[in-house]
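The protein record passed on below.

***
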Amino acid sequence: MLRHIAESEPLRPGVLAVRLSVEACPVTRQLRQLEQAGHVVRVPDPEDRRAQRAQLTEAGLDAVERMREVRRRGMEAALATWSPEDLGRPAGLFAGSSTTSSGTPRSRSAAAPRPYARHGDLITGAG
């Protein structure tokens, strides 16, 4: 949840719930716990004075950075025994994903669908 908040502007709890594909109630409870831990503060929504958005504090940003570092070290440990050839194989596979199975270039829309599309006030995974 912290990562989702860190990677965007302050979010309404409902928008965060949609991004996480969960109901709003658990998000609200989790945000309350994160707020009590000092990782999140609620800020006014500039578009609706009745609503609030969740924003990371310095402590929240530090926590996100620690999580990224743990993931990075875990990936380094997992790949430590891979040969240079093995390490190059996934890169080649990803580089080839810009073409179709027949080798023709994919159109931009087919190769990279938008991760989020606006639907009213909510952001969904539809593209």
Notes: Residues 82-99+106-127 form one domain. The longest strand covers residues 48-56. The beta strands are 40-45, 48-56, 117-119, 122-124.
